[in-house]
Amino acid sequence: MILVHLIVVLALIQFIVFGILVGRARGQYGVKAPATTGHEIFERYYRVQMNTLELLILLLPAMWIALSYLSPAWISLAGAIYLVGRVVYLRAYVKDPSKRAFGFGLSIMPINALLIAILVGVGMHYFNGVPI
């Protein structure tokens, strides 16, 4: 379970770092707050941060719920793949947004796997008569 906690904390730290990158890009490209547009590279960093937030909303509860049905090692592996996927996504999106698909896939795949595992776990409990 400690590995799951570590991955969750790393995902939160990664989101903070992405926010710092957005702030740095804001200054570097002269995009004054509260604007969220104004320079293409700034907007790319901003979109990476916002897309990461959108996925965190899925990842974190999926990891916590999955603890009822999966080994913490598998959940941690899924989270680690997500973290790598986010870095790949960041690098690709900032360089050329049309090349972001692989990083996005690495990010969403483990979330989908966790959600499927949860559904299977719930189904197994339901059909085996185990109360949830």
Notes on the structure:
This protein is mainly alpha-helical and 132 residues long. It has one domain (2-127): Four Helix Bundle (Hemerythrin (Met), subunit A), CATH 1.20.120.550. The chain is built from four helices and no strands. The longest helix has 27 residues, at 2-28. The radius of gyration is 17 Å and the shape is elongated.
Shape-level CATH architecture: Up-down Bundle
Helix content: over 70%
State the CATH superfamily name: Membrane associated eicosanoid/glutathione metabolism-like domain
Give the total of domains: 1
The beta-strand count equals 0
Question: Main β-sheet: number of strands, strand sense, barrel status?
Answer: none
Summed up:
This protein is mainly α. 80% of the residues lie in helices and 0% in strands.
Which key phrases capture this entry?
132 residues; mainly alpha; Four Helix Bundle (Hemerythrin (Met), subunit A); 4 helices; 80% helix
